[in-house]
Amino acid sequence: MTPKEACLNLLGLSRRARKQIAGEGLALAAIRNQSAKLVFIASDTGPTTAKKFHDKAQSYNVPVIDTFTKAELNAATGNKRTVIAITDAGFAKKMVAIMTN
């Protein structure tokens, strides 16, 4: 299993465990109130949205993963969203570890 596949599997698992927030508005609020531990941004999202979330995540020290397309994120979570925030520190730590290897 590739690191991308392993991370997408964990993303689906975090959805079933209700440890993620999907959607731009809710994810932005999660970053601001510091409940977001990791943010996924679709690689094919618009440049304005990508910049907004990258900047906001950087200012709140939230790691960002932007290697997956909208289709990959949708297939993993079952949600048609371009931004997903992970709210569980354990899931976030494991996903970052997988993607940095």
UniProtKB/TrEMBL annotation:
Query: What keywords appear on the UniProt entry?
Result: Ribonucleoprotein, Ribosomal protein
Task: Say which domain of life the source belongs to.
Answer: Bacteria
Answer whether the UniProt record assigns the keyword Secreted to this protein.
no
The UniProt entry's GO CC annotations, sorted and at most eight, read: ribosome
Tell whether Ribosomal protein is among the UniProt keywords.
Answer: yes
- Where do the Ribosomal protein eL8/eL30/eS12/Gadd45 domain residues begin and end? 7-95
Sorted alphabetically, which Pfam families does this protein's record hold?
Ribosomal_L7Ae
Report the protein name in the record.
L7Ae/L30e/S12e/Gadd45 family ribosomal protein
